[in-house]
Write a structure and sequence with these properties.
- This protein is α/β, with parallel strands linked by helices.
- Helix content is 42%, strand content 16%.
- The longest helix has 19 residues.
- The protein is globular.
């Protein structure tokens, strides 16, 4: 493997980030057309929503693999390695394959006279779709990057669409109101293709209903067609269109993941109606064995350390409720780094009161909020906070403060969580 070739490919890809976010499908469609429109040869499941997209995609992938299907999975962002974004049957694309694919795609684009600006996400989406065609996947599961209507992944005409939930996030791009955000997310609903959603707001559900009616798309909801009851042992019972499952165990923490799992079980039932057999055993085993790092993930038991990628107020609320109901500890040490474009005050308002001590830091990205501004946003809670500019130093400080009965929670962004996870892994390996 030529490591230089892989690094050069990454340098090119990340270099495209200088163009920022360019919404619209024109460039990605031009790129895909130049390479034979691979997305038209792929059966896809398209997953949007504000939070839980990646977890939902991972659960769906795990179940379908258990049934014996060859499954492509495209998610973002990655936690540690670029290769995490593109998987077939749980196996990451090889670095050598990234280098070869990126080099080939650049040549094809240039030959077709396509020049920047196009985005990092346009390019990587085209890479993923071509890769899945190359690998002859039975189903490709695609996670929306941002929004839905104008997201690069929205080139597909999927078997079905999933919208996990709707909350405020990326308001500068998607709109200031829940309905405006929901309208952007609803852009992934395609004519005649079923929609499954776990959204709860009445006005959002009405909007989705109108979209589905206009497009003659079957419409399914968690809480109506698909229902769950959480049991005392943290498992849950499921009742759907044709299945009843008792004592389903989910290998992911948090009540919100039960909602995501119910969404997935419902989607697999709808998928069956489309001719894709999924057994009860595959459903149960897939959820029992699913792995999705960085979401209420316990990465150390002594001292106890959890990672959670909560990056908006809705995610922070879920984390708050999980910390209150699902974890026992003497003291909570909160280590947090947040991106500049987030509702920082709302996130801190939810999480800071739970903490006995707060460490403010930032991951290595220009998008990160300076810790001094985080401290300012804390208000009266700032008196229990300290600043550690370097994330590694912040982690070491957090570990030194965390006694046997305490809990260290690292959160605020998937960038923060990804860097922290990589560092903690390197410590274990050393």
């Amino acid at each position: 493997m030529n490591q230089d070739a892989y690094q050069q490919s990454l340098d090119y890809l990340y270099g495209l980030e200088k163009f920022g976010m360019i919404f619209g499908l024109t460039q990605v469609e031009r790129i895909l057309n130049a390479i034979g429109n691979p997305h038209k040869d792929i059966q896809a499941i398209h997953i949007g929503g504000t939070n839980g997209k990646g977890s939902t995609a991972a659960m769906m992938s795990s179940i379908l693999q258990k049934e014996g299907y060859r499954v492509g999975l495209y998610t973002s962002p990655h936690l540690i390695r670029f290769t995490e974004r593109i998987k077939v049957n749980g196996k990451e694309i090889e670095e050598e394959e990234v280098a070869e694919l990126a080099g080939w795609l650049r040549k094809e684009i240039e030959a077709a006279g396509i020049t920047p600006p196009f985005t990092f996400f346009d390019f990587t989406t085209a890479m993923a779709l071509h890769y899945f065609k190359q690998k002859w996947v039975d189903v490709a599961i695609l996670e929306v990057g941002l929004g839905g209507r104008l997201d690069s992944t929205n080139v597909v005409d999927p078997l079905l669409s999933i919208i996990t939930n709707i909350a405020k996030d990326h308001e500068e791009y998607l709109g200031k109101s829940i309905l405006k955000i929901a309208r952007e997310k609803a852009g992934i609903i395609k004519r005649g293709r079923p929609l499954i959603t776990a959204a709860e707001q009445p006005q959002v559900l009405r909007l989705f209903s109108e979209f589905c009616e206009a497009k003659s798309s079957p419409y399914y909801r968690v809480g109506r067609e698909f229902r769950y009851v959480r049991t005392e042992d943290d498992d849950f019972d499921y009742e759907g269109l044709n299945r009843k499952l008792w004592g389903v165990h989910l290998n992911l923490r948090g009540f919100h993941q039960v909602v995501n799992a119910t969404t997935v079980l419902g989607a697999t039932e709808v998928l069956e109606d489309l001719g894709y057999r999924v057994s009860t055993d595959a459903m149960i085993d897939g959820l029992r064995e699913v792995d999705w790092p960085g979401r209420l993930e316990m990465v150390s038991s002594s001292p106890r350390v959890i990672l959670d990628g909560a990056h908006n107020p809705a995610g922070a609320l879920v984390l708050k409720e999980s910390l209150e109901k699902e974890f026992q500890y003497q003291h909570l040490i909160l280590l947090i780094g947040i991106m500049k474009d987030k509702d920082i005050k709302s996130m801190l308002h939810l999480l800071a009161p739970l903490a006995d001590h707060i460490i403010l830091t930032k991951p290595h990205t220009d998008r990160a909020t300076p810790p001094s501004l985080l401290k300012k946003a804390l208000g009266k809670n700032g008196k229990k906070a300290e600043i550690a500019e370097d994330l590694k130093e912040a982690i070491e400080r957090g570990l030194s403060l965390t006694q046997e009965e305490d809990l260290l929670c690292i959160t605020g962004s998937l960038y923060t969580v990804g860097e922290a996870r990589a560092y903690l892994q390197s410590k274990r390996g050393s």
